[in-house]
Amino acid sequence: MRVHVVSDVHGNSTDLARAGDGADAVVCLGDLVLFLDYADHSRGIFPDLFGVENAHRIVELRTARRFEEARAFGAGLWAGLDRGPAIEKAVRKQYAELFAAFPTPTYATYGNVDIPHLWSEYAASGTTVLDGERAEIGGLVFGFVGGGLRTAMRTPYEISDEEYAAKIEAVGEVDVLCTHIPPDVPELVYDTVARRFERGSRALLAAIRRTRPRYSLFGHVHQPLARRMRIGATECVNVGHFAGSGRPWALEW
Fold it and tell me: Which residue, among 6, 71, 23, has the nearest Cα to 239 in the 3D structure?
C-alpha cells in the first residue's frame, strides 16, 4: 500500500489534483483555505478584498506579534464590509475548486483555518471527512483529529484544549494518528521563518506516549525546526507545507 499525505494546501488546487498519482489513497490534514499567503502577499482572500499594501501591513504586524494592533487594523478595513458573507463567498469559491481536485479515495480532516460546516456541501462521494474518528486503510487503522487550539490569531477552527483532548481520546489506539497540529514538542512546533512557537497539543503528546502508534502525522508548522523525530515507538512526521512544495509525503507498507 502507498498513501500520499498532504497538509496546509492553502489554495493549491493544481498540485492537489496530482497528489494521488501513484498512490492507493490520499490523506489530507487540513488548511485548505488561503486567507493570506505570508510568502506572496498578493495571494488569498485578504489581498483580494483589501489590496496588497494592506496585506503587507497586516503581515508585518502579525510577524512582530503585535496582534492587538493587527486586529485593530483589520477591524478598520472590515468596517465598510459585511465580514461574514464576504469571507464565506470567497471560501466557497476556494472549496469548490479544492474539493473537485481531491483524488479518489481521499480521507480528510480540518485545519485551523477551515470552516467545517461548509465541507459537507463540497465533499464528493470519494472524499471521507473524519474528525475524532477512525478509518481502516489497507489493513491499518488511521485516526483523525482536526482543528487547532486557541491562539491570539483567532483562526476559524480553534477549539479548547478540553474539546481537543476529548477527540484524541475518542480516536483511541490506532496505527497512524493523523492531526493538523503537532504534539507539543519544542522542535516540532517552532517555525524557523515566522520565528515563533505555534501551539502543539499536550493531549496528543500524551496519547502518543500512551498508545504508541506507528506514526503521528501532522502539518500546521510550515517551516519547522525539526520535520521528524521519534517519540518512543512512534515516528512523528511533519508532512510538509503542500502549498509551497506541491509534493505529498508518502507512507508505504
Answer: 6
